[in-house]
Hints:
heterodimer, A: 401 residues, alpha+beta, six-stranded mixed beta barrel, two-stranded antiparallel sheet, 12 strands, 17% strand, elongated, B: 233 residues, alpha/beta, Rossmann fold
Amino acid sequence: MKDTPSVIETLMTEQRPSERPVRFLRLRTMVRVGTRMVFHDHLKFAGTVFGVIFAVILANQQLGVFLGLLSKNTMFIDNAGADLWILPASTQTLQAGKPVPLSALYTARTTPGVAWAEPLLFGGATVSLPGGGSEPLTIIGTAAPHWRGGPWNLVAGSVDVLRQPETMIFEDSERDKLGGLNIGSVREVNGHRTVVGGFTWGLLPFAPSYTFAEYDNARALLGTPSDQTNFVLVGVAAGASVDSVVRALQVEVPTNQVLSSTAFRQRVLDYMLTQTGIGTTTGVSTIMGLLIGLIIVSLSMFSAVVDNIREFGTLKAIGCRNRDLALVLLLQSSIYGLLGSIIGLRLVTLMADAMRSPKMALVLPWQTFAATPLVMIFLCGLASLLALFRIRKIEPGMVFR
Amino acid sequence: MRERAEKLSAVDVHGMTKVYGSGAVAFQALKEVDFRAETGEFVMLSGPSGSGKTTLLSILGCVLRPTSGQVLLFGQDVAGAREDELPALRLRLIGFVFQGFNLIASLSASENIALVLQLRGWNPREARREAAKLLADVGMPEKADSLPRDLSGGQRQRVAIARAIAGHPPLILADEPTANLDGHTGLQVTAMLKELARAHRSTVVVVTHDNRIFHLADRLVHIEDGRIGKESA
């Protein structure tokens, strides 16, 4: 068109009674049209939302299992109550390894900025079952009177029962597996007589369950020499910086590692993610879940466009631009993504509650609830691109054919 | 400005050709067509299938570009308009009536009419009020909230006519508006279209081969084999 004001241009602008910006009104109109189109075909709407729900459930279930496995492997560090740890130089994760000399404990107690330091024994053992056979345990030895390092989550008995000779606290969910344990039951652990003094709940890592004993009792069970321990837990004095105490202690015990709890936790996570198949397995499943959702939504939206191709053609013929129709698609994909996420997350939450047990737990942090709708809206937007390509190719002239 | 517009031909086509495809499969749908419609005129284009009448209508409606020639709407050549200018031209200048009604299935009768007004910048309340008035004009005030699926063919076409004349566009193009209607209803809706368009001095070009409505035309233009043939008043 030419630049000079013309009859045609005047005709085009003279039929507008509203003072509001055209862009705003057009946007509002397209939002209305897009929303109405989504809800008009109930079956297609339900099918597409179901696709998003399925993707949300699958992805979050896998992610929840993954986070659950990770949390099982970091729960001891999270609950030990230490600000920092002294551990053997080669240790990558929380497991029995080369011992730490007990002198490190005394060094820690005399280091400025340290409020307390306690030894921790950590090692594998076997419990003999009454009917024959045996089961593995993870024995944890903590020192009275503060019991730094546990036990926690006690559901029967008290921590002070560990002061009694030969007494240990077992995991409640393993009672049947260990031959029907009860308070007072007697078992043989690593060839030593042991009495059940209490039970914890949920202290079941991705390894044999945590079983607690008083420090000296644990040393006898694990056969640890009296001048050695497995870890030293350290609490930092009020006002002291964890990092500066870590640096000071590292100088004092150069043959061992000194890590803050945060750093140790991260190291365990890194180890789980890079040195085991957990990250790959659950990561692939999570991505597959999202991909399946993407494909379902993509095909549903494409088919919705194909089914309504004449309507989109009509909209183009009466003056809608490609970007108006792109807005319709974007809005529709956002509706699918948001609704599917809300329903899917609710179902995953119910599923998590139903399957929660010490052996299996879906961990769904708040970040999951915040990120899922955003991810699904993004994926649905991505899925609508296929439909958008189809819409761009629609010739408005098709309405005359 | 309407007065200025009325001094010009609403539609003025000179030596316009449209070729589909290229090379050996090229098909010349329109050949050196000259066609004119004056402001406020009610023109019918008739001809056998494949004669090029819908192609001509599509070009007038800015949904198809001619291969060569000049297409003037209200004195301005739209054949050379940029692609991104065409939607605005269609929206502001042209009302469409389609053979298959082409109402948006998820919108009520009233919303279908209000849609074009809102796209033109009317605020929703005014658009709804105007839509209600137009529905009354086409004799369906009680069907404002009905979805297209709940309307008969004749009722749908009335809604489509109301949508086409909404905002009083200076040019209305109708493609076989009676094709899906019985004879009586077809006659009724065409007469209605003519009456409503005339009230606002809108120019109407109707493509049809329905000889039962020919008598309503101010001018009947015959098109055959891509060429404009005889005309009758």
